[in-house]
Write a structure and sequence with these properties.
elongated; TIM Barrel
Length: 331
């Protein structure tokens, strides 16, 4: 089926929230990761949340993020027709400076949800910027995710945050009430980029306090963890009981992509690189030597299949950890 609206995504998150499981929200920038994720979701009967950042949109659009979003959104919609579960697209970590991209996503119905990140601004500016996006999306069916607190590390094209600023539960209530967001990303110890799970001081008690405080004040919105690639399984599972239903993964997939390609080319190095003593005559395509490369080893489709398989196996394991297996609302 084609990827679905925010109204359908709201149902999916609501069911997850009530039942104590979550979804791995997986960042993509090109087809290999996307197809690996779709195949994983199919095998595990899990609905699938995809994510596209401004940087990934620019990459897909050869520097034009709006054009790139159109390309990727339409590509997802076409290829999702081959699968029997819900597929959703979230725009990840968009800033006030990306308002043109935000408006295109809403006006052209190119996404199911949008994450507006004004977390590095003052609380007042964060509320103002987030509220502007919420108001613009009103009636469109597009869900809006906001972020309160600062998460350590580097995300997409963003500058690094040297330290984390944890989300305050009482401030979270005010933020949700004043902005009207549908989901809240919280800072509770995770890190963007490369991090080791054993080194992350995940404050599960703070997740619980935020969730309980929001519920008590009638602001029971689903919670989101950014920078969750470094979490080990025990940490990931811990937060699912406290209102977290979306866990963002990007860095892990990037690493598995690189490793799959590297492992393949290291294994087939001798059929791609000329041996010692043979001129590296790529322009003449080795016409003056007895040695020649093996086409079945340098055809990009060959390594792409390896990448897709590695992404699929990685995602299947993550879906198991998040508890979304056999939970699709659309099969």
């Amino acid at each position: 089926m084609p990827f679905l609206s925010g109204s359908e995504l709201e149902k999916v998150y609501g069911q997850a929230n009530r039942s104590g499981y979550g979804f791995i929200a997986s960042n993509i920038a090109e087809p290999n990761v996307l197809i690996g994720l779709l195949r994983a979701a199919q095998e595990k009967n899990s609905d699938l949340v995809l994510q596209l950042s401004n940087g990934a949109s620019k990459f897909a659009g050869d520097g034009d993020p709006i054009r790139g979003l159109r390309v990727m959104s339409n590509y997802i919609e076409e290829i999702a027709e081959n699968y029997d579960f819900g597929v959703f697209l979230n725009m990840d970590h968009l800033k006030e400076s990306n308002m043109g991209l935000i408006k295109a996503a809403v006006d052209e119905k190119l996404a199911s949800s949008i994450m507006i990140d004004a977390s590095k601004e003052s609380f007042g500016d964060n509320v103002r910027i987030t509220r502007e996006v919420v108001d613009y999306a009103e009636g469109s069916g597009v869900l809006i995710e906001g972020e309160l607190g600062k998460i350590k590390g580097v995300e997409d094209e963003d500058t690094a945050s040297a330290e984390a600023f944890y989300t305050d539960p009482e401030e979270a209530v005010e933020y949700v009430k004043r902005t009207g967001i549908d989901l809240l990303a919280v800072s509770v110890g995770t890190e963007h980029g490369v991090s080791k799970g054993k080194d992350i001081e995940l404050k599960v008690d703070l997740v619980e306090e935020i969730s309980e405080t929001l519920a008590k004040e009638g602001c029971d919105v689903p919670l989101v963890l950014h920078g969750s690639s470094g979490l080990v399984e025990e940490q990931l599972v811990q937060v699912l009981d406290y209102g977290v239903c979306k866990l963002n993964k990007d860095t892990r997939y990037q690493y598995e992509y690189a490793r799959a390609a590297l492992d393949f080319y290291l294994e087939h190095k001798d059929s791609v690189l000329p041996p010692e003593g043979v001129k590296d005559d790529r322009e003449g395509f080795f016409s003056d030597t007895d040695w020649s490369p093996v086409k079945s080893d340098f055809d990009p489709r060959v390594v792409s299949r390896k990448i897709r398989e590695r992404i699929k196996e990685t995602a299947k394991n993550l879906f198991e950890q998040a508890g979304s297996v056999n939970k699709s609302l659309y099969t």
